[in-house]
């Protein structure tokens, strides 16, 4: 096992934030990806992937997303929609859908449906509700708990906390004992890494949680 004896310090305040962004993305990896379906106040659909995503509480279940401002300092469409309607749907990104998820991240004009542009099928949930992502086997229906602004302008995130109100599993997962979790091979998720790199989750190993005798 390699041991490291010396380190060179990098102070983010002394550098351009984009350079630090690339460095941090290459360190904090692989990151899970939330594929977020939302609608605007006037009913326009939006779909976008976000890799600053995780579980942040479990009783009741809550997830977190950090949504950065655009490079011009404006809010992303997803954040606008979540603030306006307070409901959104999170799907997972598999290896099979990675190309479509990546395409849905393109900076289309406000009001353009990424579902259409990336040719992602929609499952309608009724008027005024963000649709399900037909190519995701899992859908988390979330209600906005709160947003936490972390600043303003390019490179700054807004932390979005969402209460998971409903969890939908596709028929392909209906026979599993979900109380023990979904076997990873059934989702075949991908993870976000630095730059243009992603990770498959097919190369796995297992370790049991340690216990301490008392």
From TrEMBL:
InterPro entries recorded: Flavin_Rdtase-like_dom, Split_barrel_FMN-bd
Keyword Flavoprotein assigned: yes
One function term, GO molecular function aspect: FMN binding
UniProt-listed Gene3D superfamilies: Electron Transport, Fmn-binding Protein, Chain A
Superkingdom of the source species: Bacteria
Cofactor(s) essential for the protein: FMN
Presence of the UniProt keyword Repeat in the record: no
Domain Flavin reductase like: 27-179
Alphabetical UniProt keywords: Flavoprotein, FMN
Family the UniProt entry places it in: Belongs to the flavoredoxin family.
PANTHER family: FLAVIN REDUCTASE LIKE DOMAIN-CONTAINING PROTEIN, FLAVOPROTEIN OXYGENASE
The protein, known as: Flavin reductase like domain-containing protein
Provenance organism: Nitrospina gracilis (strain 3/211)
């Amino acid at each position: 096992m390699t041991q490291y004896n010396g380190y060179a310090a990098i102070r983010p305040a002394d550098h351009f934030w984009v350079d630090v962004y690339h460095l941090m993305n290459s360190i904090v990896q692989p990151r899970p990806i939330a594929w977020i379906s939302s609608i605007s106040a006037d009913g326009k659909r939006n779909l976008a992937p976000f890799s600053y995503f995780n579980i942040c509480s479990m009783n009741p279940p809550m997830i977190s997303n950090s949504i950065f401002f655009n490079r011009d300092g404006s809010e992303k469409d997803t954040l606008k929609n979540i603030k306006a309607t307070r409901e959104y749907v999170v799907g997972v990104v598999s290896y099979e859908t990675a190309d479509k998820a990546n395409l849905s991240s393109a900076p289309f004009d406000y009001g353009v449906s990424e579902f259409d542009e990336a040719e992602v099928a929609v499952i309608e949930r009724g008027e005024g509700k963000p649709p399900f992502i037909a190519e995701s086997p899992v859908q988390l229906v979330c209600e906005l708990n709160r947003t936490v602004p972390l600043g303003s302008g390019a490179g700054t995130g807004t932390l979005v906390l969402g209460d998971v109100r409903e969890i939908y599993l596709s028929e392909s997962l209906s026979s599993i004992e979900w109380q023990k979790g979904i076997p990873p091979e059934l989702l075949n998720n991908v993870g976000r890494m630095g730059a243009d790199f992603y990770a498959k989750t097919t190369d796995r190993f297992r370790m049991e949680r340690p216990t301490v005798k008392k």
